[in-house]
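fold-stage: in
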Amino acid sequence: MHRATFGHGGQGQGSLRKREGQRWPCEVCGFEFGEVYGAMGAGYIEAHHNVDLSLLASESGHKSTLNDFKMLCSNCHRMVQTQRPSMSVEALKNALGTLN
């Protein structure tokens, strides 16, 4: 399991920065920020809740763990959130033809 730090860190809500030297491609399309943006984007990815936060809010005391998230690039993150409840990552993979 990868160690990661959660928080805004100047990157906005739902963002995650990994430890130096680790790679985390988008789980839908494989995009890696570091490959395109170099050092500025190295280790950056957005964290998408597998279950919508509005649904988790009803569960008192729920603490999110890394297993509650899928790591997505900004574009794929937006696309899964075009529906309510959010589209599953697997559904977006199927729509794009990227399911292994």
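fold-stage: in (second)
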Amino acid sequence: MTFALNMFQLEAVLKRERGDMSSDEVGRQSLVQQNIELRRKLEEEHSNYKQKLQFYQDGQARQAQLVQKLQAKVSTHLSHMHTLS
């Protein structure tokens, strides 16, 4: 990430030295590249967050199913105990 950004900045500085770009253009180019990199990083973090949230929700659903099954077994067991009494 940093290497790519530094290469981009180096290229912009070389263009400026050759007279191809003004210092304002170099600064703008650098800001554009930083913006692109930050957006990519934000999208990556958002994707990771959504994946973790989905895993959490799936786990919660599995746990709810297990609780329901256990409650049904307990209820069946209690009914069976009452019929034996």
